[in-house]
Amino acid sequence: MGEFCLKKKFYASLVAVSMALVPTLALSQTTVNMPRNRYEVQRDVQIGQQYSTEIEKVFPVLNDRISNDYVQDVGARLVANIPVRFRQPQFRYNFKVVNASDINAFALPGGPMYVNRGMIEAARNEGEMAGVMAHEISHVALRHATAQATKQGSWQNQLGTIGLILGGAILGGQAGAQAGAIAATAWQTKYSREYETQADILGAQIMAAAGYDPRDLANMFQTIAAQGGGRAPEWLSSHPDPGNRFQRINQEAARLRVSPEPIKITREFQSVPASLQSKRGQS
Ligand SMILES: [Zn+2]
């Protein structure tokens, strides 16, 4: 009987404990909603293909299997953890390293993504690099380019402007990386603050699901700011207000199930810089 009572007490305390946990568990992850979009999914794919062709004419895409394989692997792990409701069978995510020292990365609609050598070199661990990639993947998954065009009501204007800038850069005959940077910035600044927040939140969720610590995305804003030197690095100029974002991403991280041993320093992360170093100056 004594044992029964003890058991009863034990179960009663279990119930008390689990009830006490309920409010914490109820603080669930933020729901991200797909923005309204009047374009067909195929339109995103078309735009991405068109611009990746243009961009690769001016961008010095790095011809280094080790680093390309590496960003491809990290990217694939993140893509595999995009929530089901944001997956598009038509999208083809792929990741290339650009031989430019500017700290920058960007993705085109439908999936082509470019990560500068400078971004990989700036990251203090794989999570920080993956954070920027998860953020960019989120812009693609949420179809932000065509969603923004839907909101502005004039797709032609937006696309026309980007096309002109790209065309100008090519005709201007500037050094590839510089011209490419102009095009990339022109593309990135198109996103509204609301979409940036969405990409931060979904990016944090994808990171946690993929085994990374979303706080590394928050940390990357500080890492980039610290390494900027005199001028603002490209990615920060298109991604303003790092302080607020740092806080918001960490808030979201507190609501997510994060691995107790998140991916940080991997063998690849340690070996890729040497491979990048050997390609410096080449393009
Ligand atoms: Zn962004």
Can you walk me through this structure?
63% of the residues lie in helices and 5% in strands. 40% of the residues are buried. The protein contains 13 helices and three strands; from the N terminus they run αααβββαααααααααα. It has one domain (34-277). It has a three-stranded mixed beta sheet with strand order 1-3-2, sandwiched between helices. With 283 residues, it is mainly alpha-helical. The chain starts with a helix and ends in a 6-residue tail after the last helix. Bound molecules: zinc ion.
SSE topology sketch:
Elements: H1 2-26, H2 41-58, H3 65-79, E1 94-98, E2 105-107, E3 112-116, H4 117-122, H5 126-141, H6 144-152, H7 155-172, H8 176-188, H9 193-209, H10 215-227, H11 234-237, H12 242-255, H13 267-277
Helix pairs in contact: 3-5, 5-9, 5-10, 7-8, 9-12, 10-12
This protein binds zinc ion.
Zinc ion binds at residues 135, 139, 191, 196, 199, 239.
